[in-house]
Every structure is written in C-alpha cells, then in structure tokens.
Design goal:
Blueprint: H1 3-25, H2 30-33, H3 44-66, H4 80-89, H5 113-131, E1 140-144, E2 147-153, H6 154-182
Antiparallel strand pairs: 1-2
Helix pairs in contact: 1-5, 1-6, 3-5, 3-6, 4-6
Length: about 190
C-alpha cells in the first residue's frame, strides 16, 4: 500500500477509536468500567490501561524514529517479525495471548483517569501519523518493547499500535456489554 493511503487509513481508524471511547465508554458508570466477567479477565479500565502502558513505550520510540527525515515513495513493506506481530494483534484473531507482566494491568487500582490518558494518547497518535508523512516508513527504527534488540519498521510499528488498540477496544466493548447485560443495576 502506498504510504499516503496507509497513513490515511490508520488516521481514520484512530479517529474512530477515539470517538468510540468518547461516546460509548466515557459515559459509563464506574461500576461498569470496573466490572470483570471473570476474576482472571480484564475490566474496561484494565483493557485501556494495558493500551496506555504500550503507548507510554511506543509513542516516544515512534517520535524518535519519525525525527529522521526521508519520505518513502515505495509501498509499505513488512518484515517477518512485523507480519507475525500484526497477526497476533489483529482484531479478528480470536486467540488469546499472554501479555508480559509489566504490561498486564490486572489487579491495578484504576480510575476514570485511564480514559483521559487514553484519549490523550489518541491525540498524540494522530499527531505521529501526520508526522509520519515526512519519513521512510520502511526504515527499521523502532525497538520491540519486550526485546529491544529486535526492531520493527516504522510503518509496521504504527500499524501494530493501531491494530493492538482496535483489538483491546473491542474487548473493552464486549466487557461493557456483559456488565450491562449481567447486572442492569451496574448501568444505573
């Protein structure tokens, strides 16, 4: 895919994710936001805190990668690691995957500040996607969070962040629906 179309598609997805959080999740009562269908599953706030933790790592790494100028006229390409990473976080991939311990928010004391932080990260991500127009998306420049000797291409990383957010936002929506269906009292 051409870089311009690639970035426009990611930009549209992030705008939609942000709108979903603002319209569907932010209005929910705290009881719904903290509801867990099972003790070993995540609440809505834990899903978003997980994403916040990834943003805290990947946004500065992307900022650094995007500081190197050099637009690419080539289609966005994928390495083996990039394809594998994207396959794991694809929203339609129903397989569950364990997350690394420091990215797992289970058992954290969370408040609505998680929503505010997430929305701030989305504004920052939109800025990063705009800045990405002036860089080579095929440059290997972003260290993988859990093993920093490995690097993803800039474009792969941008897509990874967006697809990962799509996946966990869908998870958060499912949890919110379960909370409202299983205990109508929570929604009041």
């Amino acid at each position: 895919m051409q870089p311009t179309a690639f970035l426009q598609a990611l930009h549209a997805t992030v705008r939609q994710l942000r709108a979903t959080v603002e319209t569907e999740l932010t209005p929910l009562p705290d009881a719904v936001l903290n509801f867990k269908p099972r003790p070993d599953s995540w609440s809505v706030l834990e899903c978003l805190e997980h994403l916040n933790r990834y943003c805290r790592y990947y946004h500065p790494a992307l900022t650094k990668a995007l500081a190197k100028p050099g637009a690419s006229a080539d289609d966005v390409r994928y390495s083996w690691l990039g394809r594998k990473s994207l396959d794991i976080v694809r929203p339609d991939n129903g397989q569950q995957h364990k997350t690394v311990k420091h990215m797992n928010p289970a058992g954290s004391q969370l408040s609505r500040a998680v929503l505010t932080e997430f929305l701030g990260h989305q504004a920052e991500l939109l800025h990063l996607l705009t800045a990405a127009r002036a860089t080579d998306l095929n440059r290997r420049a972003v260290p993988v969070e859990f093993f920093r000797l490995l690097k993803l291409r800039t474009g792969e990383t941008l897509e990874f962040v967006v697809r990962h957010e799509e996946r966990h936002l869908q998870q958060a929506q499912r949890v919110a629906q379960l909370a409202q269906a299983s205990a109508p009292v929570l929604a009041v």
